[in-house]
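Below is a filled-in request sheet from our internal design queue. Each sheet records the structural input a requester submitted and the sequence that came back. We keep these sheets so that new team members can see what a complete request looks like end to end.

REQUESTER: design group, bay 2
PRIORITY: normal
MODE: inverse folding
CHAIN LENGTH: 419
BACKBONE (tokenized):
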């Protein structure tokens, strides 16, 4: 098969393999750290977890991506990227170790969150640098395949890291600090792996760097403003982004509810609740995978808007039908279904945005998309924190989410008919 042949050629490139190794280790460490943070906030026996605490944890995990992301590239185009991987991962290993010490010590929650926030903020520079470095290790004709393989492999590594964290927490050590230290070790391994590449291999070319940092930052801000104006002129893309933002909000609110149900409503033991949460994450991930397989066919039959409407309509029915009993098995089925419809709608949205905006503005629009995607999730966690009781059983929240899904289905259907 041509794809298999091209992939074998790509993997024979030693510098590509070395960069891929840095990505796999870095994102596996991210998966470990994120699960450790979530389990510490939600399942620590000494903590009486609240929805507000979960919302704070989600803000720590996601907001750096939104706030730092658009400006990370400016600095990455001034620093040697190999050095970003080296010092960025060393810094994350140090900060993760400090986070582990804070878990063991009795410190105010805000200090713990500041430490965890620092780890995730550095992460944005590393991930953006990994993408920016790819053209330096793959030939032009292999770059499309490299851009497909690397992020997919990184996502799988993060998932594997999260699974390893669950195993360590449940089977080998009942200590969140030990899991965080495992993440620190993986960050250190990623830093050491970067040393296998020459310092100047990954760019940037010094002759292409803007002379003044302030000018580069101002240019980035103007670019984002221009992207927002361009998006306002492209109704199709703007509508798809609006619909996806609402669906992401719904998914975030239900995620907080499931966390609270696993912690308080369904089990009497923290380990059992953690195992249920791991299962929920797994079945939701299976839904994401099925969406990647099903969406090209479904969107081809129904069109991107038609598939988005079908996804939102299915969620309108399934959320109250499976969620209102507040029982584990129906909720796990709902987690699978929502993984499918949320990712299916996102893939359709990506297609609408890619085809609906000019190429010159596409990068900036996707930066705004990234901000909306993460802020919606964090905002949903904050709203859920206000609505959820301590055990997570909230019929008003489930009904509200179902109404929002119905609104998206109706709106997208109208947009589709209007052309």
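RETURNED SEQUENCE:
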């Amino acid at each position: 098969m041509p794809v298999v042949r091209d992939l074998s050629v790509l993997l024979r490139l030693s510098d590509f393999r070395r960069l891929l190794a840095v990505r796999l280790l870095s994102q596996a460490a991210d998966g470990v750290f994120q699960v450790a943070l979530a389990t510490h906030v939600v399942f620590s026996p000494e903590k009486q977890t609240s929805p507000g605490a979960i919302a704070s944890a989600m803000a720590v995990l996601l907001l750096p991506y939104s706030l730092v992301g658009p400006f990370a590239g400016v600095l990455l185009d001034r620093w040697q990227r190999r050095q970003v991987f080296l010092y960025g991962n060393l810094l994350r290993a140090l900060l993760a170790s400090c986070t582990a010490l804070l878990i063991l010590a009795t410190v105010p929650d805000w200090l713990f969150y500041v430490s965890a926030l620092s780890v995730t903020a550095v992460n944005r520079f590393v991930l953006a640098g990994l993408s920016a470095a790819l053209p330096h290790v793959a030939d032009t004709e292999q770059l499309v395949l490299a851009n497909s393989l690397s992020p997919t492999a990184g996502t799988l590594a993060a998932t594997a890291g999260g699974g390893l964290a669950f195993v360590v927490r449940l089977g080998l050590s009942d200590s969140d600090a030990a899991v965080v230290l495992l993440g620190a070790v993986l960050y250190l391994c990623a830093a050491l792996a970067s040393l296998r590449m020459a310092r100047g291999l990954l760019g940037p070319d010094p002759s292409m760097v803007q002379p003044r940092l302030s000018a580069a930052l101002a240019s980035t801000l103007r670019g984002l403003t221009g992207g927002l104006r361009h998006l306002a002129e492209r109704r199709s893309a703007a509508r798809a982004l609006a619909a996806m933002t609402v669906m992401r909000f719904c998914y975030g609110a239900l995620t907080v509810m499931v966390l609270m149900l696993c912690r308080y409503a369904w089990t009497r033991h923290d380990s059992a609740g953690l195992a249920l949460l791991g299962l929920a994450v797994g079945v939701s991930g299976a839904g994401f995978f099925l969406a990647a397989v099903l969406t090209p066919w479904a969107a081809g039959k129904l069109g991107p808007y038609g598939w988005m409407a079908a996804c939102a309509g299915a969620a309108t029915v399934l959320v109250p039908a499976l969620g209102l009993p507040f029982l584990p098995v129906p909720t796990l089925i709902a987690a699978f279904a929502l993984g499918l419809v949320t990712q299916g709608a996102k893939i359709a949205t990506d297609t609408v945005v890619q085809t609906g905006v000019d190429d010159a503005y596409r990068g900036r629009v996707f930066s705004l998309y990234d901000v909306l995607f993460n802020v919606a999730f964090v905002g949903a966690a904050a709203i859920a924190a206000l609505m959820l009781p301590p055990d997570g059983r909230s019929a008003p929240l489930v009904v509200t989410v179902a109404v929002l899904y119905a609104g998206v289905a109706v709106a997208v259907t109208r947009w589709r008919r209007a052309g």
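SHEET NOTES:
- The CA atoms of residues 90 and 188 lie 6 Å apart.
- The domain at 1-205 is CATH 1.20.1250.20 (Growth Hormone; Chain: A;).
FILED BY: M.R.
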